[in-house]
Fold:
Amino acid sequence: MSYIITSELEVCNKVKGDSITEKELLNAGANIEALIAGNHIKATGGTTKPAIQEGAEK
Amino acid sequence: MARIVLTDAKCTINGVNLSDHIASITLSTSADVVETTGFSSTAARTRVAGLQDNSVTLEFHQDFATSNVEQTIYPLIGTATTIVVSPTSTVSATSPSYSFSALISEWQPLSGAVGELATASVTWPISGAITKAVA
Structure:
């Protein structure tokens, strides 16, 4: 999961428009939900799709 | 670095750099004093250090703009969050950073009198140890 900085303020040493991964945020001890609620970051929708196993219904 | 006049202190709360909206930072650390005095010929009390008790006091300039002070702090009320403070914005051998987890136990969304700047002065207890780092 990755996020884009939407805040006018520096977030985890990154500035508006930069991307930041969930791992980077967690390593910095950040509360991701609070950052989203505060309009500091926004999910970029880059989630990994679960692989469909062979034989499974699509 | 010699004596220092604070002009460029840095404070990040939940990773957000709010330094330009903070006018005062006080990081306090103390340890309980546990008495160990026993009968002896010295007739003087003896003591050892007990548990540490740490806190941080910050004075904010309130700002309700998008992704600013209010929007940063309000979602954190009642939670423990990571705070990093340093005497200058660049951490070096002579300008350490202190990181810790503080419990956002109080907040003043609105405080001030007519004609005054809206401010919020808070003291948050620190949960656990303070980590000091130098570059």
Remarks:
- Residues 10-133 of chain B form one domain.
